[in-house]
Amino acid sequence: MQTIPKPIILSIAGHDPSGGAGIQADIETLAAFGCHAATAITCLTVQDSHNVHELIPLPADLISRQVDTLVQDFPIGAIKIGLIGSAEAALAIGELLVRHPEIPVVLDPILAAGGGTELAGETLVKAILEQIIPRSTLVTPNSQEARRLTRRQELEACADDLLSRGCGAVLITGTHEAATDVTNTLYRRGIPHHRERWPRLDDSYHGSGCTIASAIAAGLARGVPLAEAVSEAQRFTWESLVAGWRPGKGQHIPDRLYRRQSE
């Protein structure tokens, strides 16, 4: 029997040509944790460090063929889902999750770009709620995404709503909240909420959500318990942001390989 030297995570996400987010962010994050990234592209984008200027969803059947080919070949330790692009793609991804309920799933429900461009209409939001969230081990919305998904304002109510839809846990990140520190809260059914606070950094960053979701997926694939994987991912993401840099004229991007550079 073949021995797999490192965990394999399937990243289903969009391509960001700036390298700040999307598939490239996932690959870098997973590599930093000693994991291998198998990838399925959902969308192409025209974007820079300021904003997404154009979104080009790929056909749902092409996404399905990418995913099915990989799943049949590799032992997938976890699935991380990012930018989806269309309701048809959400349905195709949901069907994959039905076929493989044993694989942990981390969903980063990307609804808008950091620069403000809308990346998910109401049809796609509905499909995410119905097809993917009920089959996710963990959903990692920021506070704005949590409110849009649930149409509630209080974050605890947002988490309760998402949990009631069937996902295993919800991590709501607080970068968009008006507070001195950034507070991220992990919500699970029947377990007290767990909050972690991080010093707010001065700059604006592109790809932090992809980073934390991928880092959690890496933990789950390595057999790390959920709460520990979430804490580990938060520290990694914050340290990546501290080491981040500004390659263009817009947002900074995390330096996800800072650990290797410091060794």
Q: Any descriptors?
A:
263 residues; alpha/beta; UDP-N-acetylmuramoyl-L-alanine:D-glutamate ligase; five-stranded parallel beta sheet; three-stranded antiparallel beta sheet; 9 helices; globular
Count of extended strands: 10
Largest sheet: 5 strands, parallel
- Strand order in the sheet with the most strands: 2-1-5-6-7
Poorly predicted runs of 5 or more residues: none
Cα-based radius of gyration, to the nearest Å: 17 Å
Estimate what percentage of residues fall within beta strands: 15-25%
CATH class: Alpha Beta
Summed up, the helix count is 9
Number of separate domains:
1
User: Which structural class do you get from the secondary structure elements?
Assistant: alpha/beta
Helix percentage:
25-40%
The CATH architecture can be named as 3-Layer(aba) Sandwich
User: Kindly state the mean pLDDT as a whole number?
Assistant: 92
Spell out the CATH superfamily.
Ribokinase
Shape: globular
* SSE order: EHEEEHEHEHEHHEEEHHH
Measured between the Cα atoms of the first and last residue, the distance is 34 Å
Looking at the structure, the CATH topology is UDP-N-acetylmuramoyl-L-alanine:D-glutamate ligase
